[in-house]
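Throughout this review, each integer encodes one residue's backbone shape. One record appears below.

===
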Amino acid sequence: MALKPGDPGYRTALISSCIFFMICSAGMLVVNKLVLRAARLPITVVMIQMAFTVLCLVIFPCGLHFGSLRDVLRWSLSIPILFTIMLASSMLALDHATMGAIIVVRNIAPIVTMVIERIWGERIEINFWAAASLVYVIGGVVLYTSADVSFSAVGMAYMFANMVSAVLERLLQRKMIAVQPIDVSKTGMMLLNNACALVPMWLLLIVFGEHHKWHLLRNLSYLDAALLFFSCIVAVGISYAGINAQGYVSATTFMVLSNLNKFVVVAFGIVVLHEAGSWRAIVGCFMALSGGVIYARTATR
């Protein structure tokens, strides 16, 4: 379990867990976008990444621990469903929208999370500048989306589903990891997430008809196959990094962390993938991301 404030090494663990998550988060977004450009099979790619994570945990069961059936069921009957929706909607959004649009719109999530978290009784203290920074973020989101020519209603719907599912998943994870902790190890949570989520993913696979398009995988180049394999490795990392970081920060702060490291990702999208690069898009993106930085520096928690 995560160290508590005041424990030796707490600050180091907190900072390292946040940095590790931010690196994995940025890497996952870029690699997934590149993989989807080669194989337009978002659900299939997610399932491959999940199966790879499960296989790694079965072969190398480091620290696997399940304290009781009750705790296992508490996690398995809630988190994996949201985990499925979050990952599937993220990949579908990447297939219908630019990385910049996804990153910018995600900056609204901390506002939603903060409101729900306060209602749920999590101790969230926020000052004037922290609140103002989140309002500033909204202005950046509006400006960016008005300039992104590839912005679509379908992409927006997937981004909204991703934001809502991510908020709920982070809130429930935070509750079960730090507020009312269950007796399941972090690697155990990873295994439950990926193994249980494969079931609803099969249903989504059938709904979207991707199983009829699996022949497209044979057309992948060696570089594309290498990127897919690398995305599986990053998926293992982010599965652990997300759960680990939730033990140290509130869900609101976690959502902000998810967005802070995206300056490089947006630059990659504009320069390499030729995504939205007008002055309104750039200014809006800067507002949204810098607002997250301001929040991180001024929020008291």
Q: What stands out?
A: The chain has one domain: 10-298. Residues 10-298 form one domain. The radius of gyration is 19 Å.
